[in-house]
Fold:
Amino acid sequence: LRLRSALALVTGAGSGIGRAISLRLAKEGALVAASDRNGAAAEETIRLLEGMGGETGTGPGCHAAFQADVAEAGAAQGLIEQIQAYFSRPPSVVVSCAGITRDEFLLRMPEDYWNEVIAINLKGTFLITQAAARALVSSGFGGSIINISSIVGKVGNLGQVNYAASKAGVDGMTRSVARELGRHGIRCNSILPGFIKTPMTEKVPQKVLDQITPLIPMGHMGAPEDVADVVAFLASDGSRYITGATLEVTGGLFM
Ligand code: NAD
Structure:
């Protein structure tokens, strides 16, 4: 158990990659605070943790679900306060996984698609990072902040100028946070997943999948667990000298 005694906050924990991360961290012995704007989905994630390590009843020794929209004013700060009140300590592992896509070609992209994606993927990640970092710095025990970015932030993608900008922004923020907080024993890294099978990519037409799959050296799309395993590593002491890094989990796509 690499994460015994860690308390891990996962945003976007109600689906896909965030749910797989919650399960993986619990298996490694962490207590999980699963947060999502869809509160019922976060609760379902906690139910899935039953028998996976840790307790799923109520009380500070048990995994717990939280409802929070990371883009809402005051929500991130409120979430960290709620978690601190519930567990009597701040989360030492903070995984920002909440994210959306609103795809449209540049020439047709409505301004609200831009605003919504930036508000959730970039500003939401900033707000969670800032609120968690304040609590971690005052706790003095250090921690690991892990942002789920995307390979699209590095290489761009058709119909995703907003999404690519949000994820490139997350990576720039990650490196800056790493520089600022290293002296407090707080590490900050990004994971750049490639093409992962989740509800987010279910919408992608078969035609596009057939074009992308041959470009993946590993020959197939990734599973949420492929990303979750790397999160567990970045959360653990095994990565103690890694900070400000962007780790590609793409099966080699666009390397
Ligand atoms: P998903 O749609 O299955 O899950 C996203 C979760 O985030 C949902 O439960 C949703 O309710 C939650 N969420 C959305 N907006 C939120 C908000 N404002 N506040 C709180 N929660 C919110 O998607 P996924 O594929 O699991 O993606 C998870 C993360 O991984 C995202 O940041 C995504 O950009 C990133 N990613 C995914 C892929 C992929 O191929 N699936 C590739 C690269 C990066």
Remarks:
- The first strand starts at residue 7 and ends at 11.
- Residues 26 and 53 are 6 Å apart (CA to CA).
- The pocket of nicotinamide-adenine-dinucleotide is lined by residues 11-12, 14-18, 36-38, 41, 69-71, 97-100, 120, 124, 148, 150, 193, 195-196, 198-201 (CB under 6 Å).
- The chain has a mean pLDDT of 96.
